[in-house]
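agent> Task received from the user: take the single chain below, predict its 3D structure, and emit structure tokens. No templates, no multimer pairing.
agent> Plan: (1) validate residues, (2) run structure prediction, (3) serialize to tokens, (4) report one or two observations.
agent> Step 1 OK, no nonstandard residues flagged.
tool_call: predict_structure(input=
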Amino acid sequence: MPLTARKIESTKPADKVITLSDGSGLELRITPNGKRGWRFRYVRPDGSRRRNMISLGVYPTITLARARELALDIRRQLVDGIDPAEHRKAEKEQERNPHAHTFRVIAQEWHAGKAQQWKESSRRTQGSWAALERHVFPFVGDKGMDEITPMEWLELLRRLEREGKHEQKRKVHFFCRDVYRLAVVTGRAANNPLNDLAVALVRGKSKHMAHLDADELPELIQAIDAYTGNELVKHGLKLLLLTAVRPGELRLAKWEEFDFNKAVWTIPADRMKMGRQHRVPLPRQAMATLRQMQRISGHYPHLFPSRNDATKIMSNMTFSMALKRMGFEGRHVPHGTRHTVATGLKEAGFPGEWIEMQLSHKLPGIQGVYTHAEHMAAEQRPKMMQAWADLVFDQGLI
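)
tool_result: status=success, residues=398
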């Protein structure tokens, strides 16, 4: 039950600390010496699932109504991915040294938070920092957030544009815009000058991963079936076709993530590009492949241990090298399998929402904000992927 002023006043100190809960993380602690202090408990928004606590002041200086207002502010911060304790430390640091908040300093804080979320992807973590060090810090790294003008940012991005580095430009724009978002929500920048710069930049041509068309699929299936290299690699290429997951998500898979009774693979949020848990329905053919793999690597934590050191994971180039040996260099890469599967599912008439969720894509526009349906009912994605697997089976993969 929510707290009332009467409940607070009538509760007397005891030999041990008494905790009165108002619900949703807000509580009042009464110590044996009679002190009454507000606390708010929450789960850190960095993906670690660690719990933390922050003090909101003492009662009655902070009334019940005021404590609820402060708790509501904290919940809003958590929705925006802000750790209230870290935010409070940043505010105190700004008061002590208001000139210390250069772009480089805020970027370091942003990167430290992202490193927690991307802990399974060291290449992504290192790549983001390397891009900032090479393309941003030499020009604006030591300037205050509000001292950098939109024209300076535009010139920085246009420099990459003139060099034809459109993908680097896109990434730098994204990273720096994200750094400003952190600065704005923590009160260390008045606005985000990178929000509207895209209208003044040339849009680079989109480059899709090399992938086979649907009519070329039988050729790929036959090549996989005839592959005489590493048996686990052969099974992995099959699973890419049967699940449409990203190659990195599959390569890092652990046996504990698979529910053989429900035929579902649950990929944890910290390994997903979108930062949210992803459930993958497993058709019969995928289950059969996994059981074959269990005889080879089932006694290791990961599905794809390294051949040289079983405590490590298979190289991220292994799938690509196998496809090159099969004769698909320049025609098809592991990530391109997602394009092939998505095209096949679309041509088969399955709903776009199911396909996008299978690919773990965010839906466009307002749907992406409010729609979180996984479409895991038996007649939805599981049925869709079974139909796809049956098509693959008919073409001779299994």
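agent> Step 4: summary for the user.
Strands lie at 18-23, 26-30, 36-43, 51-58, 258-259, 264-267, 278-281.
agent> Done.
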